[in-house]
Amino acid sequence: VCRNNNNMASHGLAYDGCNFFRQRLVLSTLSGKRVKIKNIRSKDDNPGLRDFEASLIRLLDKVTNGSIIEINQTGTVLFYQPGLLYGGSVEHDCNLQRSVGYYLEALLMLAPFMKTSLKATLRGVTNDPRDPTVDMLKSTALPLMKKFGIDGEGFDLKVVKRGMAPGGGGEVVFTCPVRRTIRPVQLTDPAKIKRIRGVAYSVRVSPQMANRIVESARGVLNQFIPDIYIYTDHMKGANSGKSPGFGLTLVAETLNGSFLSAEMSSMPQGQGDPKLPEDLGRDCAKLLLEEVHRGGCVDSSNQSLALLLMTLGQQDVSKVLLGPLSPYTIEFLRHIRDFFQLMFKIEVQKPSEDERKGGDKVLMTCVGVGYSNINKTIK
Amino acid sequence: DDFMERTPFKEQKRHQQKHSGPKAERKKLKKQEGSTEEDGRKRNPKAFSVQSAVRMAKTFHRSQDIKTKKHHIPHVDRTPLEPPPIVIVVVGPPKVGKSTLIRCLIKNFTRQKLGDICGPVTIVSGKKRRLTFMECNNDINTMIDLAKVADLVLMLIDASFGFEMETFEFLNICQVHGFPRIMGVLTHLDSFKNNKTLRKTKKNLKHRFWTEVYQGAKLFYLSGMVYGEYQIQEVKNLGRFISVMKFRPLVWQTSHPYVLVDRMEDLTDPERVRTDPKCDRTVSLYGYLRGTHLKNKGQVHIPGVGDFQVADVNFLPDPCALPEAQKKRALNEKERLLYAPMAGVGGVVYDKDAVYIDLPASHVNQQQEEVRPTTELVQSLIDTHATLDAKMAASKVSLFSGSATLDSTDVEEGPREECVWDPNTQRKRRKVVFTEKEEEDVSGSSDDDEDGDVDSEDGDQEEQEEDEDEDNLSTFLKDARAESDETEKTVTDAPPAKKQKVEGGKKRGEESAEVPAFADSEDDLEMSEEESEEEGENVRAGDSGHCSEEDEEESGDDDDGEEEEDDKEESEDESMEEDDAAGATMKKQTARGLRWKEGLQQKASEAFLRQQKAAPNLRKLVYGSVVEADDSDDEEQELGGLFRVSRPQNSKKSQANGVDSSRFDPDASHNWDLEEMLNSIRDCFVTGKWEEDQDAATLLKEDEELYGDFEDLETGKVHKGQTGEQDQAENDEDDADDDDNESLVKVDDDEVQKKKRLEKKQRLKERFNAEYDDEDATYFDDLKEEMQKQAELNRAEFADVDDETRVQYEGFRPGMYVRLEISSLPCEFVTNFDPHYPIILGGLGASEGNVGYLQMRLKKHRWYHRILKTRDPLILSLGWRRFQTIPLYHIEDHNGRHRLLKYTPQHMHCGASIWGPVTPQGTGFLAVQSVAGTKANFRIAATGVILDLDKSVTIVKKLKLIGYPYKIFKNTSFIKGMFNTVLEVAKFEGASVRTVSGVRGQIKKALSTPPGAYRATFEDRLLMSDVVFLRSWYPVSVPQLYNPVTSLLLPAGQKDSWAGMRTLGQLKHDLGIRNKPNTDSLYKPVVRAPRHFNRLHIPKELQKALPFKSKPKQQQPKGKTPRDLQRPSVIREPHEKKVAALLLALSTVHNHKRKKAHTAQHAKHKEFLQQKEKLEEAKLKRQKEARKKLYRIQGQVDQKKSRSSLKGAPQDD
User: Fold this and answer.
1) Is the pTM of this model over 0.90?
2) Min Cα–Cα distance to chain B from A237, Å
3) Nearest in space to A174 (alpha carbons), one of A263, A241, A114
């Protein structure tokens, strides 16, 4: 009489290719759904998972308990059955192929839902041109998460050592408290930008580089607003990592406390054409203008984080005004539908004719799935 | 007496109250003010003064505490506008009158009689309330399941018998799973002949009920039966109570969607069932959705069956709807609906694609065959537009008889849709393309609408169409018809296109003239690679153009619901028209009469798909079927300057393995060196232009307007605000702007002004509200307000979106009547179906479908007669689930260690760890040892709550290793027998050991022989008889048993006989195995021989030395004097007697005299002593005096001496 009732109904999901690898693993961990990724670079000369992806899997294994990860011999097929998020004190040496931002973005999504509050020490490349740098995440992602009710004294991201690509040698400490539920938000009005802040950093090069960057960046931005302050951060000795480099992170803060940011860092040593600090500063400032043009309450690299936190909110309506959706975000929305069966209401808001507020905006609306942190212990 | 006499006759003069004068005025003043507290304070300030600050603080604290205790954490009110029917569960032991009560209540509300109550019965009880009745039988499985879904419990109690165990069991189940409203109903009250005993019983039962539920819980009395029914008035009263009752939200229910199934249909292919009767069934289940939003494709648990993935969810028109218009009057007969498909009420029930007609029992066998023809007819007649989309999405079309059915999703894939075999026309149908000329035609078609309509009048088909949906007729429809006519007339294979596309083309003008007129370029995107290769370029252009178009439309529209509806209609019509185009001639079509209806479903399905594709809005871009499509272009395309479409391409693995970065590269087309580009974002900064309602200057002006008018009281000067002027100025500006259409502006002017005024008022009101009673607002109030706002937002956000779209965003909301399709249900579910047992679909949260270790706090129920043993299987009811599992009990030591217990403590909480379904912390559970049969004893073994979820456990068991010393040095001993090898010892080096007598020690090092022996040091010398032990902790693993109770799969009538894994004790009992105990462990009667103590021997030498007191005494106790030594008694002579008497008298006298003398002497002596004392005292006093005198003199002398020595030293010298 009793047949096959012992298995639970949760079916896994299957994907092809290693694209959006992080999204799949993170959402799988949060939703508890198994995921199988096939054909990872199967046609490539060098098939299978790359080192940095393996490093991410290792990091996930460190913060979870009871995860089952199976990778076939060539590394082209990955099966991931998530365990429970455990948290605690974690140290991880990130692979140098990707910067710490790559790993940190995943951790930011997972950290509020751990069993115990997370204290992660990540070592590796802190700034590179491919991923959002730790400075940018610190100045944009953290205030964004605070809007969702994730705050408290233990919520911090500290750059202990700076390490530029390709040598790395940087160190970041990320601590995050645990939340049981996430608050719904209504971020529909970004308001006007009241000030611009930034960090111009340079390691293992002349400290004058940072000043040169600041000078040129100010030149562009001063046409719009006088309240600009760009800190120069020159790290020396042990804190300066293993490779030379410099860069700039700019953050525009609005009256309603949303942050738009842009950044640019010098090409890693031995790759590409070197860039003058003046050019870098000017280009970065233009990037910020581009970001302002896109607008919204969340900047383009944190769109997916905001959408995730909206999804995991209580069963209430959340709204966020975004700039144009990035390809990464669009894919993220699809993945959210796969993992949480949640669709966003997407409306375009066109600025009126006489307004000079940049491009079209997108208003994202959703009803949260009513996620509650099942990892947290009650006493 | 005289007083009594006087009063009745002579009335005293009444007091004349003063109406004027100072006294009256004073009084009036006093009256006006009243005796306020203030007054009292003034009159008696001492009474109100602070006596003690501490006490004042205490009273303040107390009042605050009381105030705060009343607060509950505010929750967002998520109840839908049209809530689902209230679930009323009627419970009670058998033969107590449950069915009768339900029948009476239904009759009371709907005036209908119901025979057998099986399955849920839903009725409309009032203008705003619906009720679902469900009877709960005596099976504990049913009781558990229904307690989880009940809103109100009617607990029937047989008063003639008193409380039965079931009642208490049910109450305890309720307590664990969230306490629904409980109302007691006493029946069988007519069996009491004596009025006094009746009253007494009522009172007793009431008070017992109160202690279980809460003080003052409602208990109803149904006094007696009249013709087999309860008295009408009493039932009516009960009904009134039910219909005004308020309910509290329960945590589990409000956080999970659930459906109490009131209808079940087996959808499995009959052929499959015939060939394999045991095959898994596809079943659709119906019911009102309750709790919270249900997402499609979610997981559900069916208690008694198992976990399942929902294949599909649709909502259906409400079979038991509330009356639409809210009227003052009561419900009429028509509105008092009753819906109980399981009880056979309703006759005809609709599915989304079928109609079921309930026939009397004699026809049951033929039902399948009989229903078919009628079904189609009825189906074609029913009004279906409400759920068209849903139907189409899920319906299946069989192209050839016997071929595999085509799912709409299959069709959606793309290419296949291009050539669909139309059985009507017996040919392949292909998509057709409009020519340029056609587009123009249509674009200007609004004028020749009428002619078109007239033209189409002759078409038979059109007429029918019109009949069907007259009200849905829109301009679009007309357009389409005109269009179709044109098509017919001019080109037979001319392509029909979407109006949208046409418009798009028109707007874009001539530059996109060559764009191929595929309305939905998405189709092309989804075409196979080789097909679209050449068309690629054109399509791309069309696509992007189309998209931007859509965006604009949407942003203008603000919500796409309407638009979509329009689209739908349009496409519906289009399907018709396409049909036309496909058909050789229209005449043929009309001749066939009803034939068009056959293809209706398919056509509509196509139309739906096309409509889906024709609306390429953002939603479609993100969520559309694009993901599965084979896309051939390798470059990301930009749509409307806003979106880059990223499509994972299966064909190109390079894309699938692209770089995973959240960075969004900037738009290359933006050149930030250009002034215009810079200008485009000027207003994003605080330095830019502000909005009207935020600009400081405007706000100031506004204030001026509002508060500008005032009169200076001192000078008498009146200041005027400049409202008029300013407005005038604005108007002037406006006028200046558009001189040419001045007249138009004038008309709008009033409107604008009015609007402005309204806005201003609104703003003022808001400002006032923000400022008003701000200082009273506490944190609690703020929180409440926030929740209120959120609730309003939740309601408002999707209020005006149509349900089809809404369910995609929100999920299916509670209150909807839904149909859930579940594939692969075990066949026993269908074959052993019994409507008396509730079927519940409990939705599961994000990771509640997984299994893991659960740590819980558990307490044996105080009414359960045994304690529970670790590793004995136990049936738990947790969340939606009922399952058997093997718990390990443990207790937490002071250092946080979880120590395994063999049994649960008798009256204490303990921890329990199980392997089971992941359930959120804080969820309550209850445990029973078995669910089979009914026992006299209380069945609920334990209750508790989930504390923690994990993938590993940390329970340890105490393990004592025992060894014996075989060689003892001073404090060192060699111990053997504890370990077997040197390696084992090496692992325990440094571990502390202890002897039973309490001597502590440490393991030092292993010895080579014998194996496992070691050297240990102790704090004292051991004895050979000592036993050394080492206390260690051994981790225990929790057995991974999760066995859902599948009681619903059992044959009807045996559903309460589910038996799972047996406990060890049961197994042994069943198999007749007797435990063979260790003989050492057996209890034997204790026989104690009397103890013999030797005499204490003290050496002679020592005896000598001892003092006499301690010396052993040699003397024997005096024995009896022998008879010869006893002296004889004397017998006196009379004379002797006399002498003796005299002597006695004399001696008595003498004695008396002596005594007297003695007392006298004593008194005298006393007196003498007193005298002496006195003298002594006087003497002492005298001496003291003398001494005093002496000392004084001596002192004076000394003083004199010292004084002289101080000053008279030189004199002396």
Assistant:
1) no
2) 31
3) A114
β-bridge pairing A84-85 and A64-65: antiparallel
User: What is the Cα–Cα distance from B960 to B1032, expressed in whole angstroms?
Assistant: 6
Cα(A180)–Cα(A85) distance, integer angstroms:
13
Q: Which residues of B touch A366 (CB under 8 A)?
A: 809
Are the beta carbons of B120 and B149 closer than 8 angstroms? no
- pLDDT > 80? residue B1174: yes
Q: How many residues does chain A have?
A: 379
Residue type, B443: S
Instruction: Please give the residue of chain B at the shortest CA–CA distance from A49.
Output: B657
**Average pLDDT score over residue span B409-426:** 39
Alpha-carbon span A266 to A277, nearest angstrom? 8
- Report ipTM (2 d.p.): 0.91
| Chain B nearest C-alpha distance from A364 (Å) | 11
Q: Six-digit token pair at B598?
A: 């056959």
Query: At B124, is the secondary structure helix, strand, or coil?
Result: strand
User: Given an 8 Å threshold on Cβ–Cβ distance, is A342 in contact with B295?
Assistant: yes
CA-CA distance, B775 to B60, in Å (whole number)? Answer: 19
For residue B839, the Cα-to-chain-centroid distance in whole angstroms is: 20
CB atoms A192 and B684 under 8 Å: yes
Burial of B1029 (0-12, 13-18, 19+ CB in 10 A): middle
Q: What chain A residue is nearest to B622 in terms of C-alpha separation? A: A330
Per-residue pLDDT band for B1040 (boundaries 50, 70, 90) equals: very high
Nearest alpha carbon to residue B953 among B1033, B1032, B896, B1035: B1035
Give CA–CA dist A299/A323, Å, rounded. Answer: 7
Torsion sign across C-alpha atoms B1205, B1208, B1209, B1213: negative
Q: Give the lowest-confidence range in A186-195, B387-396, B672-681, B1174-1183.
A: B387-396
Is the pLDDT score of B378 beyond 50?
Answer: no
Asked if B133 and B118 touch (Cβ cutoff 8 Å), the reply is no
* Interface contact A369-B656, CB threshold 8 A: no
Query: What are the tokens at B66?
Result: 């009381």
Rounded Cα distance, B424 and B256, in Å: 47
Q: Is the dihedral of CA B377, B382, B387, B388 positive or negative?
A: positive
Tens digits of residue pLDDT in B259-275: 999 989 899 999 999 99
Give the whole-angstrom CA distance, residue A242 versus residue A162.
9
Residue type, B400: F
Q: Given this model, what pLDDT does residue B576 score?
A: 46
Whole-number Å distance between alpha carbons of B339 and B120: 9
CA A110 to chain centre: 11
Amino acid A37: pLDDT: 92
* Whole-angstrom distance, CA of residue B751 vs CA of residue B1054: 75
Q: Is pLDDT at B203 greater than 80 in this prediction?
A: yes
* pLDDT tens-place string over residues B912-952: 999 999 999 999 999 999 998 777 789 999 999 999 998 88
How many beta carbons lie within 10 A of that of residue B981, not counting itself?
Answer: 11
Q: What angle do CA A351, A357, A363 make, to 5 degrees?
A: 55
What is the C-alpha to C-alpha distance for residues B180 and B843, in angstroms, rounded to an integer?
Answer: 19
Average pLDDT over residues B1013-1017: 96
Q: List C-alpha distances in Å: B395 to B390, B410, B606.
A: 8, 11, 11
Distance CA A366, CA B622 (A): 14
Over residues A280-303, mean pLDDT: 92
A19 — pLDDT class (breaks 50, 70, 90)? confident
Give the dihedral sign, CA B684/B687/B691/B696.
positive
Q: How far apart are CA A241 and CA B1075, in angstroms?
A: 71
User: Average pLDDT in the B478-494 region?
Assistant: 43
Mean pLDDT of chain A, nearest integer: 90
Which residues in chain A are contacts of B308 at CB distance < 8 A?
9
